[in-house]
Amino acid sequence: QVRLVESGGGLVQAGGSLRLSCAASGRSFNIYAMGWFRQAPGKDREFVGSVTWAGITYYSDSVKGRFTMSRDKIKNTLDLQMNTLKPEDTGVYYCAGRSGIGTITTASTVDSWGQGTQVTVSS
């Protein structure tokens, strides 16, 4: 079983930056793709970005150019650098893992979830 643990959330003013980290343990060697989702109050969980085993990255249009992921396959970590944050970026951010070959694009393509970390951007 894969365990994903996020860290780094917090409160930041609009225009500021935060860096989230996700550490995988357990049967983490099974993880091919990793990614991030977020969920605002009263809304569905939405895709933020993902990175394949080969290092190909995908980002949602809403974060493209502002967020950057970096994966360390030796340490089994995935970081999310968030710059120029906006109030609409507020939500719980979840780390996601996929054990099968393929790409993470929607919640249905995810096999493992972290517990989530809160990000709040004040205006």
Characteristics:
single chain, 123 residues, mainly beta, seven-stranded mixed beta sheet
Provide a short characterization of the protein structure.
Helices cover 0% and strands 51% of the residues. It has 123 residues and is mostly beta strands.
Radius of gyration: 13 Å
Shape descriptor: globular
- The tally of helices reads 0
Query: What is the CA-CA span between the terminal residues?
Result: 40 Å
| Strand composition percent | over 45%
What's the overall average pLDDT, rounded? 94
**Helix and strand sequence:** EEEEEEEEEEE
Task: Explain what this protein looks like in three dimensions.
0% of the residues lie in helices and 51% in strands. By secondary structure, it is mainly β. The strands form 2 sheets. Strands 2, 4, 5, 6, 9, 10 and 11 form a 7-stranded mixed sheet that branches. A 4-stranded antiparallel sheet has the order 1-3-8-7, with no helix packed on it.
Write the layout of secondary structure elements.
Layout: E1 2-7, E2 10-13, E3 18-26, E4 33-39, E5 46-51, E6 57-59, E7 67-72, E8 77-82, E9 91-98, E10 112-113, E11 117-122
Parallel strand pairs: 2-11
Antiparallel strand pairs: 1-3, 3-8, 4-5, 4-9, 5-6, 7-8, 9-10, 9-11
